[in-house]
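Hi all, posting the design record for the shared folder.

TITLE: backbone redesign
STEP: 1 of 1
STRUCTURE INPUT:
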């Protein structure tokens, strides 16, 4: 029930953001020049055409709402508000975009960051056996991310597939390592 409400909220936010990009879609024509080096960077082109922010949903491992802000140089900051079994997490990641495939629609991204997770009388995050007592708990962790992002041509939408391995220590005294795969859908604005 709770994940259904989160999914509906995420879809509603994406639809609102998509509607707000209608004017930008109509105004964007041609391919902007990216920088003085002449390097073609699809994500920088997307940012120029549709906006430097993206809002979306992430599912599979950490499931929740994601917000991404792009810098003019192709770097990004991503924040993920994740929801689990009676828990929620806040993750911040610094990401670098690269185009090793010489593609106009697919980019590789990688980076690192950290997270805080809060739980109440249950288990945390992606592994429900991570904390074995019934008391409230708090955990801090270090995250890494490696993923592929594909722009859907002629739209402000992107889909992504990534892994976000992390190491976490909790107030219960437990330490945990997880892989945390993810599938995401984002809209730029």
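Okay, here is what came back for every position:
SEQUENCE:
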């Amino acid at each position: 029930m709770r994940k259904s409400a989160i999914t509906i909220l995420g879809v509603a936010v994406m639809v609102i953001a998509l509607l707000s990009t209608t004017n930008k879609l109509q105004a964007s024509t041609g391919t902007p020049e990216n920088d003085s080096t002449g390097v073609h960077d699809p994500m920088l082109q997307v940012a120029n055409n549709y906006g430097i922010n993206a809002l979306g949903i992430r599912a599979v491992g950490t499931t929740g709402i994601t917000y991404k802000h792009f810098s003019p140089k192709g770097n990004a900051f991503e924040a993920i508000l994740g929801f689990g079994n009676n828990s929620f997490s806040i993750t911040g990641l610094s990401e670098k975009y690269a185009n090793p495939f010489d593609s106009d629609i697919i980019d590789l991204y990688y980076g690192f960051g950290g997270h805080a997770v809060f739980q109440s009388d249950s288990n945390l995050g992606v592994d429900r056996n991570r904390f074995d007592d019934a008391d409230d708990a708090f955990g801090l962790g270090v995250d890494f991310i490696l993923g592929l992002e594909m722009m859907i041509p002629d739209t402000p939408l992107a889909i992504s597939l990534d892994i976000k391995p992390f190491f976490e220590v909790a107030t219960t005294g437990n330490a945990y390592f997880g892989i945390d795969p993810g599938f995401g859908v984002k809209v730029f604005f």
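COMMENT: The chain is about 20% helix and 50% strand.
Let me know if anyone wants the other runs.
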